[in-house]
Write a structure and sequence with these properties.
- By secondary structure, the protein is mostly helical.
- The protein contains five helices and nine strands.
- The protein starts with 27 loop residues before the first strand and ends with a helix.
- The strands form four sheets. The protein has a three-stranded antiparallel sheet with strand order 2-1-3. It has a two-stranded antiparallel ribbon with strand order 4-5. Strands 6-7 form a two-stranded antiparallel ribbon.
- Strand 8 and strand 9 form a beta hairpin.
- Among the domains are: 100 residues, 2-Layer Sandwich (Herpes Virus-1), CATH 3.30.40.10; 47 residues, Herpes Virus-1, CATH 3.30.40.
C-alpha cells in the first residue's frame, strides 16, 4: 500500500500514484509499459494475474524495474504531514526524510517498556508514564533487596520472600552437593578400576620376573655342576699324569 494522498501538501502528479491502490507510490517499481506501482501492490496483483492492471499487457516480476531517476527525484521532493498529525505533530517534510522523522517523532505512539504493561503512549510522555506505571519495578523499601512491581506491593512480604529464597538456595545447594558427590564417586571408581588394572599388570610383571629368576638360578646351578664336573675331570687327569 502507498502513502495516503490526503497527507500531502499541494498537487501530486498523476504519474506518482500507484496504478493499483491509487495512493502515492511507496517503494515503487515500474513495468515495461511505464505504469508504476507500490512493490507490495504489484507483487500481490501478480500472484493472481499476469498482466498490467492498467493496460493489460503481459508482465511478470522479472520485468519490473526501479522507477526512473527523475520520477524518484520528483517523488522524494513531495511534502507531506507526519502520520502523527492527529496527535498534534505539525511537522511537514519531504517524502525522502519522512521515515527518519517518524522514527524519532515525539508524538509517536510507543509501547510501555515495563513487562506486563499493554499501554501505548506518546514518546514525549513516556518518562511521565514510566514514573507512575503500575507495572514499574523498584527495590523493596524495607531492605530485603527484592525488586517488586508497584502492583504487587500489597502482596509483598519480605519474610516470606526471604524464606522462599532460602529454601531455593538450600535446594540448590543440596543438588550441587549431590552432583559433587556423584562426580567424586565416579572419579574414585575410575581411579579404583585403574589401580586394579595397574595392580594386575604389576603382578604379571612380578610373576614374569620370578619366572626369569627361576630360569637364571637353574642355569647357574647347571653351570656350577658343570664346573665341578670339569674340575673333577682335571683332577683325574692330573692324577693319571702323575702316575705316568
Amino acid at each position: 500500500m502507498g502513502y495516503d494522498i490526503e497527507r500531502f501538501v499541494g498537487y501530486v502528479n498523476e504519474g506518482l500514484l500507484c496504478s493499483i491502490c491509487r495512493d502515492v507510490l511507496e517503494d515503487p517499481l515500474q513495468a515495461p509499459c511505464e505504469h508504476a506501482f507500490c512493490t507490495a501492490c504489484i507483487h500481490g496483483w501478480l500472484v493472481h494475474h499476469s498482466n498490467c492492471p492498467e493496460d493489460r499487457q503481459m508482465i511478470d516480476v522479472s520485468l519490473l524495474r526501479p522507477l526512473y531517476r527523475y520520477m524518484r527525484n520528483d517523488l522524494n521532493r513531495l511534502q507531506l504531514h507526519c502520520r502523527n498529525r492527529e496527535y498534534g505533530c505539525e511537522m511537514v517534510c519531504s517524502l525522502e526524510s519522512i521515515d527518519r522523522h517518524e522514527r524519532e517523532c515525539e508524538y509517536s505512539q510507543i509501547p510501555c517498556s515495563n513487562a506486563g504493561c499493554a499501554a501505548r503512549v506518546e514518546r514525549r510522555h513516556l518518562d511521565g508514564h514510566l514514573a507512575v506505571c503500575e507495572y514499574r519495578s523498584r527495590e523493596c523499601p524495607n531492605g530485603c533487596g527484592y525488586t517488586i512491581l508497584s502492583a504487587a506491593d500489597a502482596q509483598h512480604n519480605c519474610v516470606a520472600e526471604l524464606r522462599t529464597e532460602l529454601e531455593l538456595l538450600r535446594s540448590e545447594m543440596i543438588c550441587r552437593v549431590e552432583e559433587a558427590k556423584h562426580e567424586m564417586e565416579s572419579r574414585l571408581d575410575s581411579q579404583r578400576r585403574h589401580m586394579v588394572q595397574k595392580e594386575s599388570v604389576l603382578q604379571n610383571e612380578i610373576d614374569e620376573l620370578k619366572s626369569q629368576m627361576s630360569r637364571v638360578m637353574s642355569d647357574v646351578r647347571s653351570l656350577m655342576a658343570a664346573e665341578r664336573q670339569h674340575r673333577q675331570e682335571l683332577e683325574q687327569a692330573e692324577l693319571e699324569k702323575r702316575e705316568l
